[in-house]
């Protein structure tokens, strides 16, 4: 076969393929029409802001955000971000916040799910009670915890003194060393029931006969959990962990309401820092560069989330 | 210097004034109160006919959970009177939290979804005027002479030689103390600290003797309450964010790291770190968080408005049992005095709010000029300018000082004369677009850096000064 013939064959293949896509679109045009309104809304409310944020990140933006006044600065905003000491501090705090919140919320959720999976009197009531942190407004919870933690009159500090644990009230929120850990505790309290609900749903899928068979084989409780229950929870665990990580990475309310990022920036995480840069200080270009970096990180999470989701489907389908 | 500052605030204009600012004193205020009557509806009808049909959108910070009941009552009375006077103007008014209003306005203006009329804290307006968001607006546009407003307040609505708003209310704060705590700590119950050095000494003595907080320091990040309480101390020692305390400020470079500013920051450090004589929670506190410990007899001194007394009366009314006894004792022992002096001057923030008209291109649903003018005339009338400032401020329209309502305020509001007599010591925040960031972010950050010992006092002051200079130079 000559080269020309070969090329013609390839070209014909491409044309057939194109025609194939086109004919498939035409064949499914009604389906696309159904999706079109949602697609337009998505483009307006998601795609445009993303594009605009990326565009702003390459400009030195005046506070009035008048397009005509923007000054092209290339990657200068990114270098400002990456060379800023605050960036490194806030990044470390964000990583600690995200990993610690996710790990402990998942662990507590798993423990609660396993406990509530057993039959016992009052299980329904306890399940409802454990859901309260998840359904309560984050703003309301933040204010309540702020008073519980209050450095001078907080219940927690007073209890610690009363029980002889400390000689004076613990300074939770007004201390750079303890503030982040204190906020993480609130975040874990708020989120563990989400993990609990997800994992309880996962536990329903574990076949009882496998447990019974393992018991007959002499497996103890730990062995049964590790070799029977946990493999069945892998898919849902991955999804839960990723959802928690995304939620924690994007957390705003708890640190913002409780401390405003203080004292001395010790509880700023990316989102609160971006908020202050943009709306408090109107450094739109730098804030946009931060947001773009955050977007890239979140996209990576999204990729793994979708992978985990499909793997979960495969696991459930016995793939 | 203090005299020069006062002179700059009180310099008369070419217009005839309703009041004589050169005679300003508690006695003079009492002598003019209740000497004139005003017909609000009749006056505003000359600006906009009362049967005008239109639409108005308005944002402001009104009464909150922390406000005394009387403020809620007056607020309700105002809206009732407004809808009765201009029944055909459909009004959408949003009461937005003080600490959220600026951020929210910035955001909505970016989306061209702003309100027609907005009332902003005194330091907020110039930022938006300089960006082209506000229309030019002066008192004459709504039927009042400019001379009937504090010159310092008019300065705060002036940008690049043009006027962009009308002062709605102006106030200065005072030092509040609990005489009973003073007595129990071995201090003279009727004599407050005269200087800021005395505040440090008194605070320590109270804490050492009674184990409670002396002075209610407020140092929360990104909160207007912080500069309102710390800047008087900074100015008193001779410091400044820029040179705003001078008679003719140039706003050229920061003075946050001068000797006076460092001394003021050191005094705050001494109270918080060395003596531990102020609330530990100061770093996350706004003034609202000082109210509970004060009424519980756990805090001896704080800086606030006359409305704080009304608030304490409300709180005492809600208390029961043993708490009631403590609260009643606190209210009976509440005292107001002049803000302490420093080596350089006695100073206080010349506070208040201004009303602005948003440029039509940034208003959601278009701008109704007549409705906006009618509303601004009504709100800033001698009557409502006085009533709406009942417990927390003073009328922006100085003619309000002559009304029967001013007389009633003086007769019924304890300590009002103390705060009004502080007005000539008032220093306005720098009238530059960057003022909000300097005051609400850089100054609190400086305090936090020093009080958490993230930096030394000198380093924190130098860091803040560098940030201000960088900001003025167009940097981050």
TrEMBL record, chain A:
Pfam families: BPD_transp_1. SUPFAM superfamilies: MetI-like. It is found in: Cell membrane. Residues 91-305 form the ABC transmembrane type-1 domain. Keywords: Cell membrane, Membrane, Transmembrane, Transmembrane helix, Transport. Coiled coil: none annotated. The chain crosses the membrane at residues 32-54, 95-116, 128-145, 179-203, 236-258, 287-306. It is a multi-pass membrane protein. Its main location: membrane. Belongs to the binding-protein-dependent transport system permease family. This is Sugar ABC transporter permease.
């Amino acid at each position: 076969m000559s080269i020309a013939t070969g090329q013609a064959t390839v070209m014909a293949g491409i044309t057939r393929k194109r025609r194939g896509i086109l004919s498939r679109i035409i064949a499914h045009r009604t389906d696309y029409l159904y999706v079109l309104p949602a697609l337009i809304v998505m483009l307006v409310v998601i795609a445009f802001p993303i594009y605009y944020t990326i565009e702003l990140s390459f400009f030195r933006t005046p506070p009035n955000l008048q397009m005509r006044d923007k000054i092209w600065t290339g990657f200068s905003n990114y270098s400002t971000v990456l060379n800023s000491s605050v960036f490194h501090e806030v990044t470390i705090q964000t990583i600690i916040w995200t990993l610690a919140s996710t790990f402990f919320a998942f662990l507590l959720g798993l423990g609660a799910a396993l406990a509530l999976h057993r039959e016992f009197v009052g299980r329904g009531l306890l399940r409802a009670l454990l859901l309260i942190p998840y359904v309560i407004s984050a703003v309301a919870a933040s204010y309540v915890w702020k008073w519980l933690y209050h450095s001078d009159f907080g219940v927690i500090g007073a209890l610690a003194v009363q029980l002889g644990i400390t000689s004076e009230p613990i300074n939770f929120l007004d201390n750079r060393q303890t503030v982040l850990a204190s906020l993480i505790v609130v975040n874990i309290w708020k989120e563990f029931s989400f993990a609990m609900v997800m994992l309880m749903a996962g536990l329903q899928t574990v076949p009882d006969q496998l447990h019974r068979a393992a018991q007959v084989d002499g497996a103890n409780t730990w062995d049964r959990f590790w070799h029977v229950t946990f493999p069945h929870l892998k898919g849902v665990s991955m999804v839960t962990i990723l959802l928690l990580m995304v939620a924690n990475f994007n957390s705003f309310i708890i640190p913002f309401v409780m401390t405003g990022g203080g004292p001395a920036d010790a509880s700023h995480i990316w989102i609160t820092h971006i908020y202050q840069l943009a709306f408090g200080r109107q450094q739109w270009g730098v804030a946009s560069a931060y947001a773009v970096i955050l977007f890239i990180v979140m996209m990576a999470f999204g990729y793994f989330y979708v992978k985990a989701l499909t793997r979960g489907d495969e696991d459930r389908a016995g793939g | 210097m203090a005299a020069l500052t006062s002179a700059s605030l009180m310099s008369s204009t070419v217009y005839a004034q309703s009041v004589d600012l050169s005679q300003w004193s508690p006695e003079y205020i009492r002598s003019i109160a209740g000497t004139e009557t005003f017909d609000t509806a009749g006056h505003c009808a000359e600006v906009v006919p009362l049967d005008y049909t239109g639409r108005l959108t308005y944002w402001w910070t009104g009464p909150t959970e922390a406000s005394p009941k009387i403020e809620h009552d007056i607020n309700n009375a105002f809206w009732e009177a407004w809808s009765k006077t201009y029944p055909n103007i459909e009004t959408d008014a949003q009461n937005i939290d003080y600490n959220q209003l600026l951020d929210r306005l910035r955001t909505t203006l970016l989306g061209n979804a702003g309100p027609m009329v907005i009332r902003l804290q005194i330091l907020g307006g110039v930022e938006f005027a300089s960006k082209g968001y506000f229309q030019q607006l002066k008192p004459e546009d709504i039927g009042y002479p400019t001379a009937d407003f504090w010159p310092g307040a008019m300065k705060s609505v002036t940008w690049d030689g043009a006027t962009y708003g009308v002062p709605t209310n102006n106030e200065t704060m005072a030092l509040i103390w609990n005489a009973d705590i003073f007595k129990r700590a071995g201090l003279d119950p009727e004599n407050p600290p005269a200087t800021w050095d005395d505040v440090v000494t008194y605070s320590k003595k109270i804490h050492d003797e009674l184990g409670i907080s002396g002075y209610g320091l407020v140092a929360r990040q990104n909160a207007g309450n912080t500069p309102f309480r710390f800047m008087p101390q900074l100015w008193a020692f001779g410091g400044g964010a820029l040179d705003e305390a001078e008679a003719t400020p140039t706003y050229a470079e920061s003075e946050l790291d001068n000797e006076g500013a460092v001394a003021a920051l050191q005094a705050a450090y001494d109270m918080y770190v060395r003596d531990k004589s102020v609330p530990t929670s100061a770093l996350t506190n706004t003034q609202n968080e000082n109210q509970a410990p004060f009424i519980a007899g756990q805090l001896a001194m704080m800086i606030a408005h006359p409305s704080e007394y009304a608030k304490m009366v409300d709180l005492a009314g809600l208390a029961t049992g043993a708490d009631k006894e403590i609260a009643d004792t606190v209210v009976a022992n509440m005292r107001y005095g002049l803000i302490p002096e420093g080596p350089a001057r006695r100073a206080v923030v010349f506070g208040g709010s201004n009303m602005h008209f948003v440029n039509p291109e940034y208003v959601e649903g278009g701008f109704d000029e007549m409705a906006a003018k009618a509303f601004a005339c009504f709100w800033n009338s001698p009557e409502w300018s006085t009533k709406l400032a009942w417990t927390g401020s003073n009328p922006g329209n100085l003619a309000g000082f002559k009304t029967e309502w001013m007389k009633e305020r003086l007769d019924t509001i304890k300590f009002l004369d103390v705060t009004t007599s502080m007005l000539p010591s008032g220093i306005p925040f720098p009238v530059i677009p960057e003022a909000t960031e300097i005051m609400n972010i850089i100054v609190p950050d400086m305090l936090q850096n020093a009080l958490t010992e993230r930096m030394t006092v000198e380093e924190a002051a130098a860091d803040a000064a560098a940030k201000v200079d960088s900001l003025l130079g167009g940097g981050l």
